[in-house]
Amino acid sequence: MLLARLHGRMVVTKDAKLRRTFLGACALMGAAGAVRSSRAEVDEGLGPEIVRRWYKLWDTTKDWHQADLLLTDDFTFTSAAGDDHISKTQFKANCWDTQINHIKRFDLLQVFSNDNAAFVMYDCITSNSRSLRNVEFLQFKDGRIKSIECYFGAKSSFPSAVSKRQE
Length: 167
Description:
Layout (H helix, E strand, L loop, with lengths): L2 E4 L2 E4 L1 H18 L14 H16 L2 H7 E9 L6 E2 H12 L3 E11 L3 E10 L4 E11 L2 E9 L15
Parallel strand pairs: 3-8
Antiparallel strand pairs: 1-2, 3-4, 5-6, 6-7, 7-8
Helix pairs in contact: 2-3
């Protein structure tokens, strides 16, 4: 939640401040020409390694046990597809189990990361060679993924997970 009520007043939560800081940093980097359009530019630190491991699990490993170890016990997943801070168990049933065999690979286009969080833009190539583009905000805790918020591309732009044309 971006805003919370505290003593009758609306205040910005810590997560909202972190997200706003990252968005601002991403905008500044883009304006300064730091964003490259070819392959992902990744900062040093623990965050990029976690990001690479997570998407590699979907690409080649496809092993839930390894994914489970990379996610914290209190992991949550949120997306515009009706997933509102669902648990790790719900994520496995609703997302991993239903999608893992349809994903061929992830091409990481942009990664902005530190030890606590990362924004990742990727093209997902499906097993039937279609593609979709999403952006995900990952938060880390103790070297593991605490949460993922998935933002789908608009229906009228690049094909995305919400496009009717995607199968």
